[in-house]
Amino acid sequence: MDHTAEAHQTDLMTITRHVLNEQSRNPESRGDFTILLSHIVLGCKFVASAVNKAGLAKLIGLAGETNVQGEEQKKLDVLSNEVFVKALVSSGRTCVLVSEEDEEATFVDPALRGKYCVCFDPLDGSSNIDCGVSIGTIFGIYMIKDKDNVTLEDVLQPGTNMLAAGYCMYGSSCTLVLSTGSGVNGFTLDPSLGEFILTHPDIKIPKKGKIYSVNEGNAKNWDAAVAKFVEKCKYPKDGSPPKSLRYIGSMVADVHRTLLYGGVFLYPADKKSPNGKLRVLYEVFPMSFLMEQAGGQSFTGKERALDLVPTTIHERSPVFLGSYDDVEEIKALYAELAKTSSA
Questions:
Q1: Backbone angles phi, psi at 157, to 5 degrees
Q2: Alpha-carbon span 37 to 116, nearest angstrom
Q3: Closest by alpha carbon to 76, among 2, 136, 160, 141?
Q4: Please, which residues bridge with residue 176 across strands?
Q5: Are strands 94-99 and 116-124 parallel, antiparallel or unpaired?
Q6: Phi, psi at residue 170, to the nearest 5°?
């Protein structure tokens, strides 16, 4: 009998244990961050459960309201937003929350305030709910200098100030990918235990990938750099095989695949959306943070994505993220485009 294998299976690294281990490396920490993360994890478990029984519980379909982005709200969107707002406020560790679903930032009651700001998209890709495609929650965490005098300005920080970021994907399995600034780890929910178990330790994105992910339906509105890059993916001139196109249309699912298999995810600006479509605080920043922590890159077409300084909480930006070499290629094409347009 293989006792080593048996021991390996019984020594489970749960997400709570992992975060506590991280905490023990910082003797000055008081456990606030660990408590906050445990509330986010609880929110993810609740939403995972709701997503699994959405059809049975009649949670599928529209809630009849339109959110701040002008997108029709699904019932699950509304529920997920409520779950996360309540979980984050009740943690007693947050002072301000920014959600995709709420027009204004939520300032926590002074009696329940902590030192963190959480920006989140409670249910990304929710237009895919009815057809069973993977959807997810994205979040980013910042520290606020003065919790008693917090203003909207405190939220509008560059992505480089982010302390932690992650996403939870509700698909064939429920996977939570997290970085607290020292690498990226993936945890899978074991329904029999009700615990997230470490299944993808220290994720590193391949330096170059074989997949590109973009909505080609917008091709006629792209700028020359994007058009040229996609052309190179399909018809490489250096004798290498063409890249495969994979586009799910759910950012969490597309980024998750890119992180594990390599390649590049593109959501460029175009004539229809000159500022891009993805929101900076709770989509671009957290995913860029994870990509960089896994050894990849993230670029806006002008600068490193995490260097952006947003001016509004729902600001949008183009983004190109993924394998280091693939993003490097896009950067070179934009540098070339800038030269020719200034000439």
A1: -100, 155
A2: 11
A3: 136
A4: 168, 187
A5: parallel
A6: -100, 100
pTM above 0.90, yes or no: yes
User: Torsion angle of alpha carbons 291, 294, 295, 299, nearest 10°?
Assistant: 0
Residue among 226, 119, 198, 208 nearest 164 (CA): 119
Sign of CA dihedral 53, 124, 293, 142: negative
- The rounded distance, in Å, linking the Cα atoms of 117 and 142 is 5
| Mean pLDDT of the 80-97 span | 97
How many angstroms separate the CA atoms of 165 and 178, rounded? 6
Q: Which amino acid is at 196?
A: F
Q: Which residue type, as a one-letter code, is found at position 222?
A: W
3-state DSSP assignment of residue 202: coil
Q: How many angstroms from the chain centroid is the CA of residue 341? A: 33
**Six token digits for residue 6:** 């048996």
The C-alpha angle with vertex 130 and arms to 263 and 71, in degrees rounded to 5, equals 80
Q: Please name the helix (run of DSSP H) or strand (run of DSSP E) that holds residue 122, with its range, or none.
A: strand 116-124
pLDDT class for 343, splitting at 50, 70, 90?
low
Q: What is the Cα–Cα distance from 196 to 117, expressed in whole angstroms?
A: 24
- Confidence grade of residue 74 (pLDDT, cut at 50, 70, 90): low
Q: Which helix (H) or strand (E) holds 224?
A: helix 224-234
Q: Residue 187 and residue 196: Cα distance in Å, rounded?
A: 5
Chain center to CA of 46: 18
Contacts of 154 (CB under 8 A, 6+ apart): 96, 117, 144, 145, 146
